[in-house]
Amino acid sequence: MDDLAATNRTDDENGTAEDSAVPGAGAVPGTEGGPGTEAVAGAEGGPLPGGRARPKTDKSEATRALILETAMRLFQERGYEKTTMRAIATEAGVSVGNAYYYFSAKEFLIQGFYDRMTYDHAADARRRMAHTRDFSERLRIALDSWLDTAAPYHEFSAQFFRTAADPTSSLSPFSNESHPARATAVELFREVLQGSELAPKLDAELVELLPDVLWLYLMIVVLYWVFDRTPDTERTREFVRRSTPLTARVINLSRYRVFRPIVRDAKGLIQDFILPTIGKTAVK
């Protein structure tokens, strides 16, 4: 397996040819976060939330996690562009072929990281907001939870942002490749809303559309966070503290008759411009 996979790559000291993807290659079908993930939906045990496939064996998941953790450390120490797949494999103590068996290119490592972090964030947020039905508080908790989950990676977040900001990049949060992580986050915001006291009071169609809009709100927070250099990203946390009550009040106003025309116009904008951009129904 290793020799066959290794023949698909040549080492490139500059990290260019080595890090290009082989057409049709991806993570092992049935492992978390790469192409082939959706193919196992409905397999025994079912997929994890947000399209995360269950690992085939504990050993393969341990190897995959080791490669991913090593990559994150090297990205932090050396920078994303200067870190090659060969260096990651060497540091992880696996063959280059084995590294490519799990991740066909560096961008799939980042996709795996996105997927895992989003899943961890959702689990943490659900636990932390379980005690309350107040929509504003649940929304603040969900955003604070993201900031806490992402905190260890803030130092090198700007490096990833440069790549993710390219609309043609698979690392863009709007890309088809990012759909599993995005779906996990949107589902979390659906739970934020539907578990609150506000949801039964709102137009049913608006309740269906709002989770995607709340995900865009998270993207605004993420963008602010990337460029925040205050200790413990305190300005971002203050932005969340002040903006969540305002967001809740605006959404709450939509249930009053006088605002119905505005709500209809807002729904039209969401359906025509925001949802197509997010690629909610896109298939990889």
Brief sketch in words of this structure:
The protein is mainly α. It contains eleven helices and no strands.
Task: Explain this structure.
The protein is mainly α. The chain has eleven helices and no strands. Helix 2 (58-78) crosses helix 3 (85-92) and helix 3 crosses helix 4. The protein is elongated and about 65 Å long. It starts with a helix and ends in a 6-residue tail after the last helix. The model is unreliable at 1-54 and 280-284 (pLDDT under 50).
Q: Which characteristics define this entry?
A:
11 helices; 0% strand; Tetracycline Repressor, domain 2; 284 residues; mainly alpha; elongated; Arc Repressor Mutant, subunit A; disordered C terminus
SSE blueprint and pairings:
Elements: H1 2-6, H2 58-78, H3 85-92, H4 96-102, H5 106-129, H6 135-150, H7 157-164, H8 179-194, H9 204-226, H10 234-253, H11 260-278
